[in-house]
Amino acid sequence: MIESLITSKTKIKLLLRFFLNTKNQGYLRQLAKEFGESTNSIRVELNKLEAAKILNSAKVGRNKIFSANSRHPLFNEIRQIVLKSTGIDKVLSNIINKLGDVYLAFIRGDYAIGKDSGLIDLVVVGDHINTGELERVKNKTEKLIDRKINILTLSKNEYEKLEDNFNSEAKLILLGHKI
Q1: pLDDT, averaged in runs of 10, over the chain (179 residues)
Q2: Nearest Cα to 177, choosing from 101, 103, 106, 126?
Q3: Could you give the CA distance from residue 111 to residue 94 in angstroms, rounded to a whole number?
Q4: Does the model's pTM come out above 0.70?
Q5: Cα–Cα separations (whole angstroms), residue 58 to 31, 64, 69, 112, 164
Q6: What is the CATH topology of the domain spanning 2-68?
Q7: Which residues lie closer than 8 Å to 117 by C-beta, 6 or more apart?
């Protein structure tokens, strides 16, 4: 979907990297290695996005670290386009909002670090979740967004036992309450 608006594959990867999870940061060589592309092609797109003030940069040691500019007038619109192009908006509206007693929901894995790998790894924490309804809505949403969704459901007690493991990895919070 986003490919029809933005023709540069590198620019799409950068937008996904920085706008799927706006806490993500990156520098030139790291991004080139991660994307499997030349530093020159990454540099060109980073410079364009920085010139448009869509990305911020800061010098840290010898590296120039880039991140999403949350103060850009189009920040929310760009983020919504990225979320819609990956289907995460549908995960939120179709799955999480229809489950009822959900205390916490987050995405981990590739999407949490800004990679569109085709597998959305979703963790849902709550009590009394109807797993039959969850499976039905999951299957419907997978067809709608053309991506696989792996869902781990945990009770509040189960999550509390595993919380340290989850806190050590990148995550994209979709819905959160204090547990």
Answers
A1: 72 92 93 93 96 96 96 94 84 73 90 89 89 86 88 93 91 73
A2: 103
A3: 18
A4: yes
A5: 16, 6, 12, 22, 30
A6: Arc Repressor Mutant, subunit A (1.10.10)
A7: 109, 110, 111
